Amino acid sequence: MGPTASGKTDLAMDLYDRLPCEIISVDSAMIYRDMNIGTATPDTEFLSRYPHKLVDILDPAESYSAADFRADALREMADISAAGKIPLLVGGTMLYYQALLKGLATLPQANQAVRDRLVDEAELHGWDSLHKRLEQVDPVAAQRIHPNDPQRMQRALEVYELTGRSMTELWQEQQKQQLPYNVSQICVMPQERKTIHERIEKRFQIMLEQGFEEEVRALWNRGDLNLQMPSVRCVGYRQMWEFFEGTWDYATMIEKSVIATRQLAKRQITWLRSWDNLHHFESTDPNLTNNALKLLEGTII
């Protein structure tokens, strides 16, 4: 794991050379075909040397969820393990990691009509009456949720009304989805934030030199893609798309793209700082690979 431009791929290559690994990409942008430059997808020569699963698997017009990733990753991991090798997951889409490691609770989307009705009942009879109802349908949640916490109480009752099942029961189902593997989690990240910022700016300039504008222009010319699609909303692609639409001039597009990428890195770092059982490594450490291998020895054995 690690924020964008932190050096994850370099460590993955070293581990692939040293261990019987197969690499699985954990990147919500690299899943799309014809979006290689802006997503920093390795080129054909690189991928022939270091094959990556779950890269270039979808057309940009198609949708893909964390649940889709979990199903695909588990399938690839099972095949890799059956071949006597080690699944090595590499990427920075933290939501995908969370779905894989912790499973997914099948909670319903918010329903405004149900929420409004619960609020009306609370205003008429008091939140204590709703808490008593929660004690009947989900006693575990009622113990956890204080009567003075209307938002969480409302959500728990909403879930029950929409599904006929308690939130506790649905979360317990999620716990059963725990990953059936012995997992070692490594974070690669430079201590200095400015190091990432410098790498991001340099990498975007390289992307422009490699033909990023032409890559996005080809997507634009298809005519079936728009800014509401997850593929086009990827960092860099969105800003270039808006440049084509006349929202920005070229210089502003570059500035906006770099800022958006830095914001992405910041969000990734926030996730990683609160992540459980994560081993942090300095990406500029010349002994990074050896230190990672020492950690992995205990996991593999």
Please give the structural blueprint.
Layout lengths: L7 H11 L2 E5 L18 H6 L2 E2 L12 H17 L3 E5 L3 H9 L9 H14 L1 H11 L1 H6 L5 H14 L3 H9 L9 E4 L4 H18 L1 H11 L14 H9 L4 H24 L4 E4 L6 H13 L1
Parallel strand pairs: 1-2, 1-3, 4-5
Helix pairs in contact: 3-4, 5-6, 5-8, 6-8, 10-13, 11-12, 12-13
In short:
By secondary structure, the protein is mostly helical. It contains 14 helices and 5 strands.
Helix content: 55-70%
What structural class do you assign from the helix and strand content? mainly alpha
**Strand content bin:** 5-15%
Tally of DSSP β-strands = 5
Q: Can you offer a commentary on this structure?
A:
- The protein has 301 residues and is mainly alpha-helical.
- The chain has 14 helices and five strands.
- The protein has a three-stranded parallel beta sheet, sandwiched between helices.
- The chain is globular, with a radius of gyration of 23 Å.
- The two termini are 22 Å apart.
- The mean pLDDT is 93.
Spell out the key features of this protein.
single chain; 301 residues; mainly alpha; two-stranded parallel sheet; 14 helices; 5 strands; 57% helix; 7% strand
